[in-house]
Design goal:
single chain; alpha/beta; 4 helices; DUF6932
Length: about 160
């Protein structure tokens, strides 16, 4: 279940998820955050990305970014994915293309995804990075979504 958003106060511009990793489903994310035509469009890109990862054996994705805040018109979504069990031969190469500020990922899937355990400089892995609100430095939450294995699916 997705918890209610909380206000962190200035300088954080939008209400965010409370600290922690919150387990949810794609259906719950859609019901809670795909509430406008623009947000539905972003969510559809996220679902395509999740399907591509699931078809490669990914078991979890973590969803973050302004998409999971109270921001009325988020630019995209951000997040990361578990690499354990992923078959590199089945992975969409776009998901490993970080060139040009991840332009290929944004063009194909409308958001940016990183490998959860991949280092993000001195701040630790991306899974930790996404649990810090960037304006204030305060802890905030992210969503963990299980991906069921897809039989015969292609991205």
């Amino acid at each position: 279940m997705i918890p209610d958003l909380i206000e962190l106060g200035s300088p954080c511009p939008w209400a965010v998820l409370p600290p922690g990793i919150h387990d949810t489903t794609l259906a719950e994310v859609e019901a809670r955050f795909a509430t406008t035509p623009h947000r539905k469009w972003l969510f559809d890109g996220f679902v395509r990305m999740a399907q591509a990862l699931a078809s490669a054996g990914c078991s979890y994705v973590y969803l973050d970014g302004s998409f999971v805040t109270a921001k009325p018109h988020p630019g995209d979504y951000d997040g990361c994915w578990e690499h354990v069990g992923v078959d590199p031969a089945k992975l969409d190469p776009v998901l490993l293309d970080f060139d040009n500020k991840r332009a290929a990922q944004k063009a194909k899937y409308l958001g940016e995804m990183f490998i959860a355990g991949m280092p993000n400089g001195p701040s630790g892995p991306f899974l930790d990075f996404f649990q810090v609100e960037k304006s204030s430095g305060q802890p905030k939450g992210i969503l963990r979504i299980p991906l069921a294995p897809l039989k015969g699916a292609t991205p």
